């Protein structure tokens, strides 16, 4: 099972959209994929609930147990729901804001190594279903928090999402430094940075090029994904309606373009994983 976290310390850069769209294309390619929404704002959860509703002609996906309850019960399976063939969701909900308090009570500060025990808890629960999925895609809030720590601790790979604006570059650089500190701090942690994914702003092409060049110098040009995600208005509609399946509307050019873009990105992700020997 490959666990991939999409992140940046700057909000609004497209983490959720890109993580969910990658998960969607992995599922369409036949990989059994689980999306874990570790953001209490639950944006990935809402997008996939609407996707389920759109593709099944229903109002939305009924969710029983919340992830917070499932983690408390040490059984995340009770909260996982099926979105479509090969695509599953561990949904977030407003009660997930209680997760830090739950961990503090479970592992009080008087315990030895309590900080690592807290951030390792999610990985322990995720490991219980590791044989059930090929990929786990994790979405996190754009903050330094127990949510981000938990996701990184559980990950094999991290993808840094970079929108072509200075604040996003600053956030990406800060996140990169955070990853280095985290890796050095916990000997049992084992992740790598799969790449930096650039997301272009709509206008100001000159600034886009400058930010991309600066990112290549900071992170290394080999770490930059070749695929660059251009601004696409159709993605805004998906946030409202759910992901439209190109197979159900093959004549819609906009849907076809979106899926082609993310299929190309997904193929590049898979090729990078093959080169590292993580998949065949």
TrEMBL record:
InterPro entries, alphabetized: AAA_dom, DNA_Partitioning_ATPase, P-loop_NTPase
AAA domain segment(s): 3-185
Record keywords, A-Z: Plasmid
Identification of the protein by name: ATPase
UniProt organism field: Limosilactobacillus mucosae LM1
